[in-house]
C-alpha cells in the first residue's frame, strides 16, 4: 500500500523472483508523509517486507536486495549505487521501543559498491563505507570503514576487502 511519495528517476522492481524459486508474498508499505527515492535500477526480490513510517525517507541507488528482506525505515535509510544484498537481510533505523524513556532512532547509510552477505542485520546509526564487504551472519552495530571486510556479532573490520 502506497500512501507516501515515490520519487523515481530510475526504476524500482518489487517482488521479483529468481528463476526456479517459488513465489512469496512481498509487502511495500509507505505511510503518509514518507518518501522513497529511486535513483538507478533497483530490485527488491520476493518475500521482502519494507515499511516506511510517516516522515521517513528510503533512498535507493542501484543494485538489489535478495529474498526475505526486512527493512523498517522510521527516519532515513540510504542504499548507494551497485549494491548487492544477500537473502534474509534486516535493516532497522529505530529501536521500536523505549528502555530509558526515550525511543531512539538514527539513520542508516550503505555506500556504493557494497556487498552484504546472507542473514546480515544492520542496526540504527550505522554507515557502511564504499567498497565494504559484510560477511554472512554479521550484526552491524557500528560504522564499517570503506574498503573493509567486516564479520562477526557484532561486526568488526577484519581486513581489507578484496574484490575479484
3D structure, described in words:
The strands form 3 sheets. An 8-stranded mixed beta sheet has the order 2-5-8-11-14-17-19-20, with no helix packed on it. The protein has a 6-stranded parallel beta sheet with strand order 1-4-7-10-13-16, with no helix packed on it. The chain has 164 residues and is mostly beta strands. It has one domain: Hexapeptide repeat proteins (UDP N-Acetylglucosamine Acyltransferase, domain 1). It is globular, with a radius of gyration of 15 Å. The mean pLDDT is 90. The chain contains no helices and 20 strands.
The poorly predicted ranges are none
Round the Cα radius of gyration to an integer and report it. 15 Å
Major β-sheet annotation: 8 strands, mixed
Number of helices: 0
Number of domains: 1
Order of helices and strands: EEEEEEEEEEEEEEEEEEEE
| CATH-assigned homologous superfamily | Hexapeptide repeat proteins
- CATH secondary-structure class: Mainly Beta
Task: Give the overall shape, derived from the CA principal axes.
Answer: globular
Q: Just name the CATH architecture.
A: 3 Solenoid
Amino acid at each position: 500500500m502506497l500512501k507516501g511519495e515515490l520519487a523515481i528517476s530510475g526504476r524500482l522492481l518489487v517482488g521479483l523472483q529468481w528463476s526456479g524459486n517459488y513465489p512469496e508474498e512481498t509487502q511495500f508499505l509507505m505511510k503518509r508523509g514518507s518518501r522513497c527515492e529511486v535513483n538507478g535500477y533497483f530490485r527488491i526480490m520476493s518475500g521482502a517486507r519494507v515499511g516506511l513510517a510517516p516522515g521517513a525517507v528510503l533512498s535507493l541507488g542501484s543494485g538489489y536486495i535478495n529474498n526475505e528482506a526486512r527493512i523498517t525505515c522510521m527516519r532515513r535509510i540510504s542504499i548507494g549505487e551497485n549494491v548487492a544484498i544477500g537473502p534474509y537481510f534486516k535493516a532497522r533505523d529505530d529501536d521500536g521501543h523505549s528502555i530509558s524513556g526515550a525511543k531512539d532512532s538514527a539513520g542508516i547509510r550503505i555506500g556504493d559498491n557494497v556487498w552484504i552477505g546472507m542473514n546480515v542485520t544492520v542496526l540504527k546509526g550505522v554507515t557502511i563505507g564504499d567498497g565494504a564487504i559484510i560477511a554472512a551472519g554479521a550484526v552491524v552495530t557500528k560504522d564499517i570503514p570503506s574498503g573493509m571486510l567486516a564479520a562477526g556479532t557484532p561486526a568488526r573490520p577484519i581486513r581489507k576487502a578484496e574484490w575479484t
